[in-house]
Design a protein that fits this description.
49% of the residues lie in helices and 12% in strands. It contains 8 helices and 5 strands.
Length: 187
């Protein structure tokens, strides 16, 4: 059994693949433990004055990742926050170090088929567009999700705690998370 240290700076980070529940579960957990909630992608959009899609298409992924890192550094100085990270945030090893040194990292895990079903009709995910900006077809989308998942899943698995979100209701997932993290918090 892994022994988890008390949470540093009272920050809880949620990581996982897009559509895994970070933006849904995060605010509910925050409310349940009387913390504030922050969605890093939304903060990036505010900072850039553009949507994530617009940032990727107008300014490129490199620009997006630069803002992401800057805001993550600032966010890591907060106290009593639940923070939803973007699906690719901790792929950057520096970002992973920032997260792991400043709070508790929770992986919200979902299987590829569940992710595919949730993302199939969404058009706001720039990594699922081809170079011409066209949304990937079903088989292309499944393939792209699989490729990204293969790279990201081992990194997500380095989280302090993992909770499956595709086989459990949101309410039960939130209850399980709160029960597990409460003893680790300085409430």
């Amino acid at each position: 059994m892994t022994i988890i240290e008390p949470v540093k700076r009272n920050l809880i980070y949620f990581t996982g693949f897009m559509a895994g529940g970070k933006s849904t579960i995060g605010p509910i957990v925050a409310n349940s433990i009387d913390y504030s909630f922050l969605d890093l992608d939304k903060e990036i959009e505010k900072s850039a004055g553009k949507t994530v899609n617009e940032i990727f298409s107008d300014l490129g992924e490199e620009f997006f990742r630069k803002i992401e890192k800057e805001l993550l550094v600032e966010t890591s100085k907060l106290d009593k926050y639940v923070i939803s990270l973007g699906g690719g945030t901790i792929v950057d090893t520096e970002n992973l170090k920032i997260v792991k040194s400043s709070g508790l990292l929770i992986y919200l895990k979902a299987e590829i088929e569940y992710i595919y079903r949730r993302l199939r009709y969404k058009s706001d995910r720039p990594v699922f567009k081809n170079k011409d900006g066209r949304w990937l077809r079903d088989e292309e989308l499944k393939s792209r999700i699989g490729e990204l998942f293969k790279v990201r899943e081992p990194i997500y698995a380095s989280a302090d705690l993992t909770f499956e979100t595709d086989k459990t209701s949101v309410g039960k997932t939130v209850d399980a998370i709160v029960k597990k993290i409460k003893p680790l918090l300085e409430l």
